[in-house]
Amino acid sequence: MKYHQINSALFVKNRRKFTAEMKPNSVAVFNSNDIYPISADSTLPFEQHRDIFYLSGVDQEESILLLFPDAPHESQKEMLFLKETSEHIAIWEGEKLTKERAFQVSGIRTVYWLQDFHKVLNEMMTYADTMYINTNEHYRAVVETETREARFVKWWKENYPAHNVAKSNPILQRIRSIKESEEIDLIQQACDITEKGFRRLLPFVKPNVTEYEIEAELIHEFIRNRSKGFAYTPIIASGNNANVLHYIENNQQCKAGDLILLDVAAEYANYSSDMTRTIPVSGKFSERQKAVYNAVLKVKNEATKMLTPGTLWKQYHIEVGKVMTSELLGLGLIDKADVQNENPEWPAYKKYFMHGTSHHLGLNTHDYGLLHEPMKANMVFTVEPGIYIPAEGFGIRLEDNVVVQEKGEPFNLMRNIPIEVDEIESLMNS
Q1: Can you tell me the distance from the alpha carbon of 316 to that of 314, in angstroms, rounded to the nearest whole number?
Q2: What Enzyme Commission number(s) appear in the record (predicted)?
């Protein structure tokens, strides 16, 4: 891994939080992701399942975590199962976790090789009443490929039909949404790497540069700072491309006078950052572009202030909509009649700002969090309003990542990334 080793104390704390919510006499199992095939002997780069990483720090394929807090013996309360390493594997694939190294990473003393899993699990099942299975219940999830976790669940249900079943995901949704200080530091590091990429980019952008050349500049800076790369597929959208919310082709030439919407950010140690900035190809905003830009910036700043403990998700978006409506009226994009006659299910402002303002951020770019529950301190959110005007050939979105505080306004993890019009223009022309 490119990142510095994370202190295992974080994962010890995370496991303690999870097991505290488990039912008496229950077992929970978490599997690594598969390495997914492309064709022939090609595969996608491995990405660890965020749940097993959150609970163990293990960042390796074919790994299993078993938790049994009420086990009859201390050595059975936490167990890791790893792919057995060898000299042959070391030569062909590189170093894998040894049992001692796995303990250093995770803080788990009982480590088996993977071939012992079914034998050990069978013994645990004779002691336990309930199994926690780990299904994907994220509100944005669309899963069309059977995962390693799903195959395990199917196998377990066939082989242990007499046991009770419980779900890990509701516990994880709640505990993962509130970040430990170590996690906030890791997200901050991802944001700092993103800042370096953005600052590298500003003097580089000139008329006729291509979107993919911009992408190349960013990935260079991210990787040289110990990131694997982008936290999500980058959006580098010049001109009218910005009005396609998830434009990812990044293959067009950037023309003089146009704007570029950059929704790009680095990961670090599997933690995401998520930044959007909009910059002028020629290094200077037109008066109209500047007016729309400052309207978006005002909405972002006002929305940020609302992210406080006790805030309800649905009401938050209603209040942000009111601020956006005021700004759109000022820009002449909607009028009072549009507002008076609006459909409450699709307010007038949605014509120009059709997506949500915020989402949870952490080990996933769209991280875990229960949207029907009030916001709490140490939750990390994006704030990302936008105004999209196809008729005028541009769209503007601005996005920062913030941490909810016990009192007062959130702490902005992207506070050092240029966002004001004057600073962006100055850096682009330096």
Answers
A1: 5
A2: 3.4.11.9
